[in-house]
Each structure stands twice: as C-alpha cells, then as structure tokens.
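Sequence and fold:
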Amino acid sequence: MVVLILPLKDPSPTSGPTRRQQPHDPQHLVARRTLTTILRPLAEGLALFAEFDVNTVKSTILTTPLKSTISLFSGRAPGILGQDDMGAGLMPLVSAQADELAISLPIIAKLRQVRLSEAGIKRKVNVLASTVSDSSDVYLLGYLGVKGMWRTLRQKSARLYTETDLTLAYLKGFFYEDRVLIDILLSANNPSERLADRILQRVKQRMHQLSDVTDNDIAEFEQQVLDELPVGSPKWARCLHIDPAGWKRGERSYRKLVNDLFVEPKKRLITVDGNTMADDIRNAFSVLLNRRHIVRLGTMGVHVDVADGGNFVVRLDDRELFRGCNDAAPPQSGEGTIELVFSSLSSSLHRAVVVYGPDSLVDIIMPHMSADDMAHDHERRLMWTDLAPSTKFIELGEIVDRIVRSFVEERELAEQMRIVDIQLPYVIKYLYLDSGLNAVADEQLDGVIKLLELGGVYEALHHDRDLLEALIILGAVAPLMPLRRALLNLLADYGFADPDGMLTSLLRCGEKTGLPLVNADEHYAFVLV
C-alpha cells in the first residue's frame, strides 16, 4: 500500500471562524490539486473509451455522449426529426420509439465507419503509440486503466462485453457519485497533512471494489437510471458499493456545498479585497454549474448593429449574415460575437446561434423552430438560463488561477504544494497501471511497464505500424462481432494480404512481451487493448 504523507501545517488562526467557515483554507487547495490530478487519467480514459469503444445493442439506458450522437447522426432516435415520406419536410420518427435495434444499429454502423476511417485509426494510433512515462500525458495511462476496469466488470457481467455504453455509465457513477469521497473532501475533520493520502486511498479502494460488482448490481443501476431515481438518493449506495452511512454523510456535505454556491447573486465589483473577490467567483461558479449542459460548437467575431426597438443586423466583413428583432435588446453598435451552441439536455435537433453585441446579449436564434413548436419554450429556457459568452468563463478560470497562486505564495504553501506535485504523478501512474495491466502475469509486470514507458503499445508491437493498425481495426469491431472468420475477412477488406498471419503475429507479440493484446481460438477472437 502506498502512503502519501504531505507535511502541511495548518496556518489558520486558533481563534475566530471555525475551520468550516474559513474562506481560505489550505486543505481546500490540497483537495483541489490532489483530486484533479488523481482523476485526470480516469476522465481522459473514459473520454477515449467513449470515442473508441462505446456501443449499445439492447441496454435500456444511454449515456449523454451516445444519446447526442444518436440524435445528431442516426436519424432514428425517439423524439427527433427526420425526412418525411415525400422528402419535402421534417416530421417526428415515431416508428422507431419502441424499437431498440432500430435506434442502435444505424449508430453502430456510423461509429464503426468513423472509427475505421483514416482519421479514426490515426487518432487511436496516436494514443497507443504514446507512453506512460510522461506525467503531462495521461491519455494512454487512463485509457489502459479504463480498459482494465472494463475487463474486471465483464468478468461478473458478461453482457458488458458488448454493452460498452452501459459500462461507461456505470464507471462514471461508480467514481463520480461517490459520496464517501465527497465527505472526505468537504469534512472539517481532515488535517491538511493527511488529506491527500485519504483522497488517494479512497480512489484506490474504489478501483479494488470494482471486482465485487455483480451482474445484479449492473441491472439495478440500469433500472434506477431508467426510473430516473434522484441522484442523491441513498438507494444508489447498494449498486455502487458505497457504505449507506457514508453516502448519507457525503450527500449532506454535498447539499450544503450546493446551497452555498447557488445563493442569490450579489451585485459586487471585483476588488482587491479577498472576500469580495471570493463572493464574485462563487456566484460565477454557480452560473458555470448551471451552464454545464451547453456545448459550444464554434465562435466568430462579427459586427452587430442594434437599433431602437430591438431590430438588429449581424455582419461579417461588411457582408450581412442575418438580421432579427428582440425588443428587449438595448441599442448598441460595434464589434460583437456569435456562438453556435446546443444543449445536451435537448430532446431535439435544434441548435442555436447566440448573438452578443459590444455591450450586452442581443438575441438567441433557433433556426427552423417556430413559437408553435411544442418544444419551443423548453428549448429556449435551456439556452437562456444564466447566459454568458464563453470568454467570460475563460476570464473566470484565469481569475481563479491568479487567486490560487497568490494565496499559495501568501500562506507559504508553495513548498507543500510542490511536494504534492512531485509525489502524485508517480503514485498515480502505478495506480492506473495496476488496473490497466490486470491481465499481465506478475513475473512479467516490470518488463511490460518498461515497454509502455519506452513507446506504449507500439513498443510491444516492435514498432510495426501494420500490426498496430490491425489491432485497432479488430478492436473497433470484435466486441460486437467476435467471430474469427468474420474478423479476418474484415482485415482482408482493409488491404491486409495475410489476415491470419496478422492475428498470429498479434498473439505472438502478446506471448513474447507479456502484454496480452488478443485472445483467439479457431472460432472466436477477443481484443484486450
């Protein structure tokens, strides 16, 4: 067991506000730096797992990324619009609403096409050819870690081999809804010198607890998502393997934090006074939380003219782009911005163009949506709530960074934070490798780690680009079609002259290096990386 002991001293006074009330507590900085560093490989690994591996066939739930992908690309998702029979307009595709395969099969084909495109293969080549030795590059480390977690889960729930989107949903809930971890982060009883170690040990414990998850846990989790069980309900504790008492403590701490964040905004200017600045950041952060569902697709600088009465014109290089009217928009003229956005909470294909003038918001335009549309009011509320241009959030991040740096210097915490920064990457590397290499024999572990440090999975393939691409092609298809003959035919379709020889070479590389890449017999083939 790795124990990370950080010699931080608590500089807060012994009198005055309680530790829970201190606006500037060194333990908050330790918690922030430790947790973001520990969970970054997990976040990147889950994102790559979604990009390279996620599919669904018959699961009753969908993660937000896959739901959005279906909405955008399949043309078969419930509640979205598609061409009518005459091809003349858009109408709801109600026929697909009760047909799971009608929804999943088109998107499976689309995802396979994208993943096996030249750009898709190159994307995964870049990940598998990176190393695990550079602390600033955690992509391969996180991806291998998540693939290892997937292997662990499917040992108890075989259907997760094909239901990778359900795997993604469960892993996200398992780690990010851990109320015991929340309680550790927010508890007033955490001395700063032990906080980093407590956070680390909790994440490590959670990784080990994945081996206790059963098929019944997965089924219960799926049903509770389907039933729209509130996120904070203690009923989640059982299927996520969290102590019920710990869940309740953490939920109380979390609710207090949320209530503190979502206070009535105070109209104050940012000044050099620390408390005033902290209040403004707290209020801005509550806006940021409210707007997490907004995805910004693009931003462009434009010239905006708004006349009396709200009539406005948007121009780019003296060329009129569009015009509109919003009687609530104040008169203004000058350089502005348009942003193309959509909401992940949207149940439709509607996207919005947000127009900002030099002084204020001008309007939100939702093409092809009329006021008579049943979803009109809901969609507009999604877009209008706590609206702010993306530049404001960038500015907020810069302000937070400046405050953190000045506070570290003022409290002489720089040395203590440096210790965290030095120790954590090494510890985290082996934490994720423990999961990512769970199929490697103990006596071969050191050799495999050296290979990954030198050149990632590409090193284990002796820098053979053809083998690496063959592995990627097989990995994109095998979970849904593990038949050996079909996979060999696929390799032939992609130009491999000796598909059987490629599979044999992948098997031999795994045997020689100790890093299992594929498992195969005369009938089936399974990809492990």
Notes: Residues 18 and 82 are 59 Å apart (CA to CA). The mean pLDDT is 82.
